[in-house]
Amino acid sequence: MTKIAEAVLKVMSQVGYVQKKGVNSFQNYKYASIEGILEKVQPALVDCGLVIVQSEISHEIVAEGNMMEAVYEFTLHHSSGETSTPIRQTGLSSLRNSKGGYDDKALNKCHTTARKYFILGLFQIPTGLADDADAEEDKPAAPPHDPALDAAKAFTRKAIKEVGGATSVADLENWVTTWTKHIDKLREKFPDEAKQVDAGISAQRAHLTKKVAAE
Questions:
Q1: Would the pTM of this model clear 0.90, i.e. be above it?
Q2: pLDDT confidence of residue 71
Q3: Integer CA distances (angstroms), 98 to 32, 33, 58, 141, in order
């Protein structure tokens, strides 16, 4: 594969550094996008008479249904007629979108991810960060919205405000008696929220008791 090796070296000499022009607003970092890479690599491939062919070998859902994994073979074809032996590259993508549902573009993202890292590796293209992640391919899925947790947080805010407004130990104990069952359920399902309510009750009880003792 003399011609292919020569062409790869020539592409390497022409491409050089690829700037990270893509921006991941979710995690606030820049990355080298596939568009930016191809913008630099494609003209060099044409000039060197080199074509990259990507073929899917297999794909499957992994990581307990949270990730899509696809295996590809990449073959280099030179204008002289030379063809390389297939080179394998795996692409991974989250199977969940930002709303917690299934992402129907997961397999396409695997295709893009595998192509990106194959090109970066083959032509040894520096981007400033070896394991730089794509904006979408590796974007972690946001946890699904939980209305029950929202309600629990709202109760916690309300409880802390009302407890803090109690003007006597009797008023405070009456409030606790009224909401005991609700707080018990909160402890079972959302213990972190219950801890905040309990802490508010304890602090206000100590404050009111101290106030009475001072009088």
A1: no
A2: 95
A3: 22, 20, 26, 5
